[in-house]
């Protein structure tokens, strides 16, 4: 299930119209499109014939609407915070939901599906949406946008937007480690190589389709395509022990992801591919929870806090905590909203530290806005009118 597995119920139209008070005007980028697994799914699985869902209580109890949406969390996902930080006043709607229509499509969409991953079979086993199918939906979505606003505006939107991908963890946790056929056939290293093949294909397909200008070849257009891919996070076992071997595999996978990203950047003109590290922020919270204001890092909030995820984490689960703000994990697998906020802050710093001075200036605006108190801890400084991250 990736790490936060997620799903957004189509009925909660409220999300599309949700207004987050951001102190500034236009978003920093025209569009945000999201792909991947449960870490970022906001409800695409709700109406699928899959067991990997979370559109029932107690999921969503601390969300803006206090309703389950299909997010695998008590509240917001890291990418929800990211959308807010970028200045969007709504979250990219789940592409398969009722929310994905009209104007709400003009600032992005979410194609992610809990249970999906780089390995097509992972998604197929759980009847989730494969990454290939997510890209197919993305292209269909582009056609819709072109019909709505024309090619020029569509090009500005897609080439100037951000594409964000979260995958990898579910391929190991929900497939490789529990699938004897797979783990007999491949070593973790070989399996990682297979996943890298799929990652490369994905990046290539999306990059090449960012320019929707018809005959003009995308490679002739000097567009910058920002793409962000999160790596494989650290894993904690049900026995509340850091599972050393599994984390070794995660580190090795993450190294390959770095190398592959470099190769892709060299090969694809205009591509700015950033690998977000979610491994270390999460590991830090688990190892030193009190540093970030957490008290419980070993046990999840939902149920007994050891295994309950998806259907097992439900309104009848016994032992669910009443207040998840000091828990790192919401369910047996997915971080709480509070942890997601810390991860999102880290992602923001990582993204901005790689980019222009304007971004830091923007970050300072965000810090000064009372909407994001947590960001005030990010160290920025100014020298001769230029702004830097510490
Ligand atoms: C990947 O590269 C980034 C930036 O160079 C680095 O901070 C990170 O530690 C690397 N990750 C791994 C797993 O090597
Ligand atoms: C949960 O706990 C935090 C601090 O521990 C507190 O600020 C917050 O008000 C609590 N929320 C609820 C719903 O009790």
TrEMBL record:
Pfam families attached to this UniProt entry: Lipase_GDSL
Gene Ontology MF terms: hydrolase activity, acting on ester bonds
Domain of life: Eukaryota
Keyword field contains DNA-binding: no
Keywords of this entry: Hydrolase, Signal
Signal sequence, renumbered to the chain: 1-25
Family as reported in the entry's similarity comment: Belongs to the 'GDSL' lipolytic enzyme family.
Protein name as it appears in the record: GDSL-like Lipase/Acylhydrolase family protein
Organism expressing this protein natively: Actinidia rufa
